[in-house]
Design brief:
By secondary structure, this protein is mainly alpha-helical. Among the domains are: 544-587 and 602-697, no CATH class; 707-822. The protein contains 51 helices and five strands. Strand 3 (496-498) and strand 4 (505-507) form a beta hairpin. Helix 14 (203-209) packs parallel to helix 17 (244-251). The radius of gyration is 49 Å and the shape is elongated. It holds the Pfam family Ank. ANK repeats lie at residues 62-94, 133-165, 166-198, 240-272, 273-305, 309-341, 341-363. It comes from Cryptolaemus montrouzieri.
Length: 978
């Protein structure tokens, strides 16, 4: 206090200046119960022309005057000083609270009495004043359970039945906040117990909801008012139609429920959703509550009552997975009714994945397993729609039927349609039913294998893993084997193919060979193609017939290539003979005379070729091969339709055949034409180039051919774009150099060709530019008509074309090589798939049935079958695309099986622990009951709290089920298109 006085008197500090938070020093003094400091500030104000009333009326940032702060501080002397200084107890802050409101909230009865004593004229207005929530001081006292203040305020004239913003009287507000002492005080003071809040709840609703002791409340009401008024409250409904018994059942208040029933509450009263208290108890898992309701007089009549959706208590308990409630209801004789959707309790338990409840229901009523609802859905359908793999596995283990619903869809169809990998995995990898699931067909997914490859490759990868089994012995033992089952890669004989873009069914009349592998290629499923099962399947095909047909095809083509090479070489022998004769006859001195021979005479000598037997034989061989090849290409064109024209390899093949026919046919007429030599050059080039394409099938060398073709495609694309620059520079050089006797640029086509060759570095700078620059105009020698523009264009050309463009091409080539290397495995396997597809399309079905296998067993440690020398060489360089090195890309060893096994063990242990804990809890409860120990926990039933379950939105909180909450709208809109 002395420090404050010195600061004010000596340093001129002003008590009238607020801080940054809007508080004055006088507020802080009042808040901290510093009554003497408060007196110093008031005296200073009087000395400096400010009255005590003015000083005591300073509002802070929240509208508090010092009296509010003094009440907050709880100092009786500070409050008295403020009151004597002129502060009004009816002063309101920003939320309309008076100091009396604050004192009532804090339970400061002495302060309240002091305020009413010093300012009796303000008492009535303060008792009736309301804050922003329309609460009076009596509300504030009742809210914080201050029964002494409540009684004092009522005695002073406060309205005992006044209502706040939510139409709550002090009695209702005290019940909401659990202020039971205040509730009893208000009842004794004559508070109206029939009043209702905005939700139309009476005091009995609120007492039951908030865990009040109903027996004490009932005694107080009966003694203070009348028993009949209490009975009127028993069956009153709130805005949702719930009676107090509903809330007792929901919250699990066993004692309150027992007392309500004793008082005569109706146990089968329904709310707005036609739900009884038994429905509530079943929904929240209140076992003892259900037992009490069933033990009542009308218990046998309410056990099978249905709510607004046709759900009985057994339905609801099964839906929420309360196994003990389900057990109790079944023991009491609950019937298996259906709800409005035609679903039984098993359907609802399966939809929510409660396997223990499902086992319990099926152990009592096994006929529920394959029952269907109104839409024809079984429990397996509904569990799949909600993505519950545990329920799916249980139903399959219980030997449920794989039925189709009214839309002709099975359970696996829904798993694929909604893309639920967990549900699909549970079905297609089931221990005993997986094969049966994979054979299901529908109009939407005619082949499960193709649908899984297209939509859920990871699931199908698990199917492939399951199809590989190992012997249960040491891995280094000779009896150790690996068994590959290929049935998952084989679709039904006649099925509908799938549109790659839309996924819709496309009906076909003829089966496609290798449908699973072709689907992997079309969808780019590298991991599925590279899987050991897929590779072994292709290896089986290759060893059965593929390698024989492909090697035979290559050998046959090599014979054709030999005929072409022989024919072309024989065609050129005459020219070489004539040249040798000329040189031997005239010698080197006649060279100039030979150069001056007429070109036409030279062409006649060139066409003067002797048609030998070798030429005839080669021509016959070429025509025979072309005839067979043309027939094969025609068949492919008929099969592939327009897709045949999109393959550039087919264009190369037809160009080869056409040029070969033109080359060979004139031989049979006995004459040689100039066109034959041109066609011969084309045929020789294309035939050897086609051999390069055939080598794509082989593993070791094929990848390099693939890289070459990929780079070729990139080069063609780039040249098509940058041909604009070639034309630009070609025309520029034609204009600048054609008049200077430069033969390379004499015409526009020659200029373009010369420009293209200059890209490779063949600029001929000295001969084309330097020497002609220093020569004068001469008709015989070349010169530069326009030297400055020529050198300028040349400089731009050297920067853009040989340097920039060529480096760009090199960069693209390197990038493409890396890309090809990354996708080399897919490309190699895709080529094998195409090869076997083409072969199986042409081979008779009888042969395929003999060589095809459904499974393959390998003994990795068996060394009886060693490869011979030639077979080893063939496999190393050409023959086997499935070498051990290639198979090691994916690898058979994986820790996935170990992890899955350990997770299963952990899950089983957790279930055992949960069961043991539940058993111990029951034993402890029985021990406590025997010892007659009473605790508050005994008044609350087991189960889940109301905050964990929202009955109105229970079906809408399932994140895994799109648009199938109540009706399968999107599914029912499917139209059959087969």
């Amino acid at each position: 206090m002395i420090v404050i006085y010195l600061q004010i008197s000596l340093f001129g500090a002003s008590p009238k200046k607020p801080c940054n938070n809007g508080y004055y020093p006088i507020h802080e003094a009042a808040k901290n119960a510093s009554s003497k400091t408060l007196e110093v500030f008031l005296e200073w104000g009087e000395k400096n022309g400010s009255s005590r009333y003015e000083m005591i009326s300073f509002p802070d940032a929240e509208g508090n005057v010092p009296l509010h702060s003094a009440v907050h501080g709880g100092d009786l002397k500070a409050v008295e000083l403020c009151l004597k200084s002129g502060a009004k107890i009816s002063t309101q802050q920003h939320d309309f609270s008076t100091p009396v409101h604050l004192a009532c909230s804090q339970g400061a009865v002495d302060i309240i009495k002091l305020m009413f004593k010093l300012q009796p004229e303000e008492k009535i207005s303060c008792l009736s004043s309301c804050d922003i929530q329309k609460m009076t001081p009596l509300h504030c006292a009742a809210m914080f359970d201050h029964p002494e203040i409540v009684g004092y305020l009522i005695d002073e004239g406060a309205d005992i039945n006044c209502m706040d913003k939510e139409k709550r009287t002090p009695l209702l507000l005290a019940a909401v906040r659990g202020g039971w002492r205040t509730v009893h005080t208000l009842i004794k003071k004559g508070a109206d117990i029939n009043v209702k809040d905005v939700n139309r709840r009476n005091v009995l609703h609120l007492v039951v909801m908030n865990g009040g002791r109903l027996e004490i409340f009932a005694n107080e009401v009966s003694q203070a008012q009348s028993h009949s008024s209490l009975l009127q409250l028993l069956n009153e409904k709130d805005i949702s139609g719930c009676s107090p018994l509903h809330y007792a059942s929901r919250e699990g208040h066993i004692r309150s429920l027992e007392n309500l029933i004793k008082l005569g509450a109706v146990i089968n009263l329904k709310n707005n959703n036609n739900e009884s208290p038994l429905h509530f108890a079943a929904r929240y898992g209140r076992v003892h509550t259900v037992k009490q309701l069933l033990d009542s007089e009308k218990g046998t009549f309410i056990i099978n009552e249905s709510d607004g959706e046709g759900l009985t208590p057994l339905h609801i308990a099964s839906q929420q997975g309360h196994t003990r409630v389900v057990q109790l209801l079944l023991n009491r004789g609950a019937l298996l009714h259906r709800d409005h959707n035609g679903r039984n309790p098993l359907h609802l338990a399966a939809m929510n994945g409660y396997t223990q409840t499902m086992e319990l229901l099926l152990s009592v009523h096994s006929h529920l397993l394959d029952q269907t609802d109104k839409d024809g859905n079984t429990a397996l359908h509904l569990a799949t729609m909600e993505n519950k793999p545990g329920a799916i596995s249980l139903l399959l283990t219980m030997e449920c039927k794989l039925l189709y619903n009214m839309t002709d869809m099975s359970a696996i169809d829904y798993a694929i349609y909604y893309k639920f990998p967990e549900a699909a995995l549970a079905m297609v990898t089931h221990e005993s039913r997986a094969k049966e699931v994979m054979l299901l067909k529908s109009f939407k997914h005619p082949c499960v294998t193709l649908a899984l490859i297209a939509s859920m490759p990871k699931v199908f990868e698990s199917v492939q893993d399951k199809c590989i089994t190992k012997a249960n012995c040491k891995k280094d033992s000779k009896s150790f084997y690996i068994k590959y089952n290929f049935q998952c890669l084989q679709c039904p004989e006649f099925y509908a193919d799938m549109d790659g873009k839309t996924g819709e069914a496309l009906t076909i009349s003829k089966p496609i060979p290798l449908p699973a592998l072709n689907a992997m290629v079309s969808h780019g499923r590298v991991e599925l193609l590279a899987h050991p099962l897929s590779q072994k399947y292709l290896q089986m095909k290759w060893n059965s017939y593929g390698k024989y047909f492909h090697v035979a095809n290559v050998l046959l083509y090599c014979i054709f290539l030999g005929f072409v090479t022989c024919f072309s070489s024989q065609l050129m022998i005459r020219q070489d003979v004539e040249r040798n004769l000329t040189l031997n006859s005239f010698g080197m001195k006649k060279t100039k005379m030979k150069e001056s021979v007429n070109i036409e005479e030279s062409m006649k000598d060139l066409l003067d070729v002797e048609i030998s037997t070798a030429i005839y034989v080669s021509a016959m061989g070429i025509l025979t091969y072309i005839g067979l090849g043309a027939l094969k290409e025609a068949i492919q064109m008929y099969q592939q339709k327009w897709m045949y024209l999109l393959d550039p390899i087919n264009l190369v093949t037809w160009t080869l055949y056409g040029a070969a026919i033109v080359m060979v046919l004139p031989i049979f007429g006995g004459k040689i034409h100039e066109l034959q030599f041109s066609c011969a050059s084309i045929v020789v080039f294309l035939s050897w180039f086609n051999l390069l394409l055939l080598l794509q099938r082989f593993d070791q060398v094929g990848i390099y051919v693939v890289m070459f073709l990929e780079i070729l495609q990139t080069l063609i694309k780039v040249l098509m774009v940058f041909s604009i620059l070639i034309i630009a520079f070609g025309l520029a050089f034609y204009i600048l150099l054609s008049k200077g006797h430069h033969l390379s640029f004499k015409t526009i086509p020659m200029s373009l060709v010369r420009t293209f060759s200059m890209m490779l570095g063949e600029i001929d700078f000295l001969g084309t530019y330097v020497k002609p620059y220093y020569l004068t105009v001469n008709e015989e020698k070349s010169f530069l008509p326009f030297p400055m523009p020529a050198f300028l264009i040349l400089g731009i050309f050297m920067v853009l074309m040989p340097i920039l463009l060529m480096n760009l091409l090199i960069g693209l080539a390197v990038g493409d090589i890396e890309s090809v290397r990354r996708n080399a495995q897919l490309k190699r396997l895709a080529m094998q798939v195409v090869l076997h597809t083409e072969l199986e399309t042409k081979l008779p079905k009888m042969i395929l049935e003999k060589v095809d296998k459904n499974e393959l067993i390998e003994y990795p440690n068996d060394t009886k079958h060693e490869l011979g020398l030639w077979e080893s060489i063939f496999r190393k360089w050409f023959g086997d695309p499935f070498s051990d090195e290639a198979m090691d890309v994916v690898g058979m060893e994986s820790t996935d099986d170990y992890v899955v096994t350990e997770l299963s063990k952990t899950k089983r242990r957790l279930k055992d622990l949960a069961s043991a804990l539940e058993t111990q809890q029951q034993f402890l409860r029985l021990i406590v009951q025997k010892m007659e120990i009473k605790t508050e926990a005994d008044d609350v039933d087991e189960g889940v709290s109301s905050s964990e379950i929202n009955p109105a939105l229970a079906a809408a909180h399932k994140w895994t089920s799109p648009k199938i909450r109540k009706k399968l709208g999107s599914v029912l809109n499917f139209n059959k298109s087969v």
